[in-house]
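Re-running the complex after MR caught last week's input typo. The corrected sequence lines follow. Everything else is unchanged.
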Amino acid sequence: MENKNKLIYLDYNSTTPVDRRVVDAMLPYFYDHPGNAASHHHAYGWAAEDAVDQARKQVADLINVSAKELVFTSGATESNNLAIKGVFQTYQSKGKHIVTVKTEHKAVLDACLAVEKMGGEVTYLEVDEEGLVNLDLLAEAIRPDTVLVSIMWANNETGVIQPMEAIGKVCAEQNTLLMSDATQAVGKIPIFPKEAGVHLLSCSAHKLYGPKGVGALYVSNRQPRVKIGAQIVGGGHEEGMRSGTLNVPGIVGFGKSAALAKTEMAKEAERLAKLRNRLETALLELPEVYRNGPASPRLPQVSNLSFKYIKGEALMMAFKEELAVSSGSACTSANPDPSHVLLSMGISENMAEAALRFSLGRFTTTEQIDRSIEVVKKAVAKVRAESPAWQLFQDGVDLAPMGWA
Ligand SMILES: *Cc1c(COP(=O)(O)O)cnc(C)c1O
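Corrected-run output:
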């Protein structure tokens, strides 16, 4: 990954390679310290427990919460399920209503569907053309029986950053718990749930140069003390909120990746924004290329562009030997439907199908970006040359209103 591959990786929002420093921190917990963190009667167990304690503190420090408020999970999908189903089950005496947003990750939307199947009611908020939540609509949607509002911190497809502090105020005024899927934001931009009035927060190690299969859920334990029902039982690990032997090497890796993010994030964000803007500016200079979502507020590493009159899939196939990016609803590429995120922003089905997501990261270089610009430009010219819709557009007939697929 560190520059040796010919195939340029610009799909960091799907997953990141593990940083070597992270792997180095993990290795002793496979070999020298193989203990179970729940074994309290010998030094192997104590070593594992100490390592988990340190990692818990490292992750907590990154988002400025107390280590006691973190539950380790298998990733953000599990954290989202635990938060949404766990709150729904515990706060039934208050009500059965949840508010979320149409552009959430499937891990939130599907957990909300599960809640509906359990007898709950869910309101799915619309977003504006930039993908932002409207605070007045949010305030109107919250009811006396609303137990949870779930709004992602930053979107995985467009990078748009929601105004979490303002959202936190609306929820506080109406005395509702607020949870945020911050999987794309943690380690990329400063995220402080307590300051923003966020009571539950999901994140995942593999989005910040840690290993796959490890995540965390922040659960506020003071003002308010949030209680969630466990979804996985058996042994009472993690204060009873998530049972199962802890993935010690994975958690150590998560801790290390969080510590690295804390010291390197600010400089890295600046570097990535420059590279992203270099890529975006060059591609927007091509005719009929449009950005999906706002220039800001946005994560520094992502650019979502639609190449009008051709399909994103066709474009990806044209440069698949040289460049790896995502199309459509990226995270569920098993699902070929156009992105629900882009459609919710009022983008047409054709333009959503014409979209590609470029996401950069720690090992992206200027040379790779310049090479990517060339590769994309060449592929756009090639695929458009084969597109009847593009030919008609050149002749002055615009098929866009009817669709060109
Ligand atoms: C990647 C991602 C997830 C899923 O995380 P896993 O750890 O892979 O389960 C959830 N939400 C968002 C916003 C993501 O980007």
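None of the earlier attempt is carried over here. The mean pLDDT is 95. The longest strand covers residues 302-307.
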